[in-house]
Fold this sequence. Notes:
By secondary structure, this protein is of the alpha/beta class. The protein is built from 6 helices and 11 strands. The protein is globular, with a radius of gyration of 16 Å. S-adenosylmethionine is lined by residues 25, 35, 57-58, 60-61, 63-64, 84-87, 135-137, 151-153.
Amino acid sequence: MMPIKIIHTKDGSKSLFLPELNETYHSKFGAKTESEHVFIQAGYQYVTKQEIRILEIGFGTGLNVLLTYLAHLHDERKIYYESLEKYPLPADIIKEINEVDDEQMKQIFNLLHSVPWQEDVTLRERFVLYKNKVDLLDFESQKMFDLIYFDAFAPDKQPEMWTQEVFDKMYKYLSEGGVLVTYSAKGSVRRTMQAAGFTVERIPGPPGKREMLRAVKVACSK
Ligand SMILES: C[S@@+](CC[C@H](N)C(=O)[O-])C[C@H]1O[C@@H](n2cnc3c(N)ncnc32)[C@H](O)[C@@H]1O
């Protein structure tokens, strides 16, 4: 694992910085605010299905699982959430990032980090988490998904995660009408998604970012 540093973002939530990549795990303008905006509001709340299979690219600090869990406290939907991660974080970093005042968040955070990898685990009624320790580039599945949280490191830092092959794969594993959301609004990313068959819209981004992308697998578009 590369050296890693805890950082404090503008909304008070913590994130991580990887000096070797010169890359943070979240926006410096607010880790929690960004994840809520991009993945929960533009993704989870946008999909209206009663049963949602979510695929996340990469698990990282578990913030997106945590926020989805919190959103799920207010609805009756059935969630299957598979989160891929090539580089699980070391225990000391997880412990430090979870030193927060909010007791509820702390408990949920501990729960999702304590459950094993490569196993379906019921976190709460109607919410199953499968943490998959795998490289996205090697990922294969028998399952189809309704919503993809595409939260890889930025395209200029990790270009191999933003290729046509990867978006072809994402397209393949999405059900018809399925949605992929990402914080990136880059023109080249949008065009690569379109080449993979997605219908892509630019929508307002979180603080510090004018736009983000939401891609939909429109029925029979490929
Ligand atoms: C921008 S961070 C976001 C992580 C997470 N969603 C969070 O909120 O903390 C990108 C994540 O993708 C993971 N990752 C990098 N390369 C990967 C790969 N080839 N396959 C799967 N995950 C990868 C990183 O280790 C990191 O956890």
